[in-house]
Every structure is written in structure tokens, then in C-alpha cells.
Amino acid sequence: MISPIKIAAVVFDMDGVIFDSENLCLKCWREIAIENDLGDITEEFMKCTGTNKELTRQIMTDFLGDGQLYDRFEAEASRRFHIYADRDGLPVKKGVKNLLDSLRDRQIPTALASSSRLATVESELKTAGFYEYFDVITGGDMVDKSKPEPDIYLKTCERLGLEPDKCVAVEDSYNGIRSAYAAGMKTVMVPDLLPPTDEMRQKSIIIAEDLDKLIPLFERADT
Prior knowledge:
Blueprint lengths: L4 E3 L1 E4 L8 H15 L6 H7 L4 H12 L2 H22 L7 H10 L4 E4 L4 H11 L7 E3 L12 H10 L6 E5 L2 H9 L3 E4 L8 H6 L2 E2 L10 E3 L3
Parallel strand pairs: 1-8, 2-3, 2-5, 3-4, 5-6, 6-7
Helix pairs in contact: 1-4, 2-3, 3-4
């Protein structure tokens, strides 16, 4: 059992950490792949996890060989995603509210650093009732370079007024862990679609099954 660590803030990724949105997105892309004889698209989809729309477009265009074809498929995947989300609600990952409540009770600041656009992030957090938990929210359109570059985590720590090495990032994707680690943060991996690798174990202080497992881990540090 890992002893509690003193931290100044916790910075969360959103998709795959707060919301089970990446599984839903993959479901939509798999449907499109089957209907258009694209084969198994899972590997290419996984390369995109944690990145912004621009890098995702580049990866998928390289795979499909046609940017316009990607744009058409992406629009259809987005349409299906919103149909499912509007009908069933955006699935929330296990332990989200418990952990956020625990951090609030301990007066540990929380932030969110998502590769999604800020307007999308804020809308989804408000719909789920999580918006008010976060002291700082940084969207992917607020920085020049996407994860795995460290820009979004450096920006978020700067907005918190804290040094990165005093903060913990909670991530599910390889690109997210690489981004936070490169920023100089402590990183925690809560795997979603991608299993932990040796690289992820080396870069993470802990790999947890779900967010509930993190509740005993954090103590507030004097800043």
C-alpha cells in the first residue's frame, strides 16, 4: 500500500478519466468502419487518445489516405456520439464524485486539462454537475501543442499559480501521461482503453483500477 502523498493540487484529464466517453467514441467509429469496409480501426483510434482534434485528424488522414473522407467520417461519428449521449447521458467513470468531494473536503485545489475544446469541456462538465468542482479548466484550444507535449499541463499549473512538481495529474492515456510527466508533474494512471505498459509504470507514481482507489492517496501540502 502506498503512503499518502502531500500535493498542492490535482489536475484531471476529462475523456476517459471523468467521463467514459472514449469507449462511446470508439463504438461510433467501429460502426462506421464496419459499414465502410475499413477493417479494424481500433489501433488507429488508440493512437489518437489524449490528443486534440488537429493531431487526431492528421493520424486518421494518414490511415485513410484522404482528409475529406476523414472529415465525413468524423462528422458522422460525432453525430452518432451525440445521439447516444443525448439518449443515455454521458457515462461517468467510477469514483468521480467521491474523489472530487474528498479533495474539496481536504481543501485541495482541482483543475482539468483536456485536449477537447474549452466550450465542449465546460458544457459537458456543467451537464454532469461537475463544473463547480474545478478551480481551473484548460481546453486544448488554449495551447499551441497537443498532448503528448507538456504545454497544456504547464499552462494549467501556471494558471493555478503552482509549480508542476507540486501537483499530480490523473490520466488514462499514454499521451496524457507523457504530457504530464514531461511537464514535471507526478502522474497517476487510471487505465481506460489502454493497458499500462512498462513505460507507463515508470512514469507513474501509481496505477489505480478506478478513482475510488485514489481517495486515501492525497493529502494537502503547504504551498
